[in-house]
Amino acid sequence: MSDKIHEIIAAYLAGECVSEKEQQEVERWLQEHAEEKDMELLQGMFRSSRLMREKAVCRKEFVLEQMEKEVRRRQRNRRIGWYYSGVAVAAVLLGFVLMFWRSGIEAEDLGAPRDLQKMDVSKAYLKLNTGEVIELDKHQGMMIREDSIRIANADYTLRYSYDSVAPLEIKYDTLMIPRGSEYSVVLADGTRVFLNAGSEIYYPVVFSGDQREVGLKGEAYFEVAKDECRPFFVQAGDVRIRVLGTSFNVTSYPERERIETTLEQGRIQITNGKEQINVVPGEQVVYNKKNNRFEVKVVDTKLHTSWKDGYYKFDQMTLEEIMETLALWYDLNVFYANAEAKSLEFTGRLRRYDRVEGLFKKIEQTDLVEFELNGKNVVIRKK
Q1: Helix, strand, or coil here: 273?
Q2: Which residue, 43, 78, 223, 251, has most beta carbons within 10 Å?
Q3: If you compute the radius of gyration of the chain from its CA atoms, what whole number of angstroms results?
Q4: Is residue 358 within 8 Å of 371, Cβ to Cβ?
């Protein structure tokens, strides 16, 4: 199955907006492969999902129940690992999607950060260059003055601006995001930075001179304002990233052995002081801190950037990698009752703003693992 068809079907069943052209493309693909094994099941899933949007809720629940039973029956009969046929690969992803529906999530809700305030994920701290620390969640809707600098704090975003004349002295602020939270900042040059849980960014309140530079610990997605006369630099641990105007994601947690940079648009250069890598859109550069080496690979960028859009996307990702991500977001301590559970692979989408108990139940429906949650501690057992 082509990646494009795979994405359209999964998006459609997840309730996302799919154009009429894309629907027709899937229908043509289904007809072309009508003789292949398991194709009847996939056709039924795609067309039944259309019925669910047209019929009453009771009809929707009935169709979903039948679809989920069939997918789970096939999952129980497979060996641990990954489906090998194209149609079956889709079934794993669709299995996760079915779990979303069975949890009562309406189509238009998927991925939308509608419950942001209720979940209290907006805790963040701004350390001014004076040393003063401000709890931003307690000052929503307020303007913070720092000499001639204006800092607007609204909608979980800081926005920097300055009076008609920019200050000559370079001063630095630090935005700190604890585990279990997120925040964003629009720098004085218009660059927007989305910060993930457990991260902090160090930046000048106003850029001066012939370059712009910030420092990052943790994970952030950058939308850099274009300025050909002043390149933008990100210092992330031992890695320095040179940017002209682009969108990319950087993951650089001090406790991890790797620094990952994923480019969506534009162009960047990455160096460790000895070697320089030119990166094009769709590529990810992984820097190994132990051997000081770079690895460049082509990736689905959404696997590494979807967090900023309200969901997590996984593709043959190990449970250990998934829990590494969820532990930061939900501020959890993760323990494994048996080491084999770490290597189990999953494909699917999880809503970022759901309660963690609900996400665990969805993963448990694969009949591969079970979770025991006690406060901030979670124990994972392979079944």
Answers
A1: coil
A2: 251
A3: 23
A4: no
The domain segmentation of the chain, as residue ranges, is 3-109, 116-303, 310-382
Report strand pairing: 333-336 vs 377-382. Answer: parallel
Cα torsion angle, 64, 70, 71, 75, sign: positive
> Do residues 174 and 130 make contact, with C-beta atoms less than 8 angstroms apart?
no
The CATH T-level fold of domain 116-303 is Jelly Rolls (2.60.120)
The C-alpha angle 248, 249, 255, rounded to 5 degrees, equals: 155
- How many Å apart are CA 102 and CA 138, to the nearest integer? 37
Helix (H) or strand (E) holding 263: strand 258-265
Q: Which residue has the tokens 């585990």?
A: 179
- Say which amino acid occupies 342: K
Whole-number Å distance between alpha carbons of 299 and 36 = 28
Among 100, 86, 101, 92, CA closest to 38: 86
- What type of residue sits at position 297? K
Confidence band, pLDDT 50/70/90 cuts, at residue 4: low
Q: Please provide the distance, in angstroms rounded to a whole number, between the alpha carbons at the two ends of the chain.
A: 30
Cα distance between residue 176 and residue 200, in whole Å: 4
Question: One-letter amino acid identity for 104?
Answer: G
Note the CATH architecture for domain 310-382: 3-Layer(bab) Sandwich (3.55)
pTM score, whole prediction: 0.71
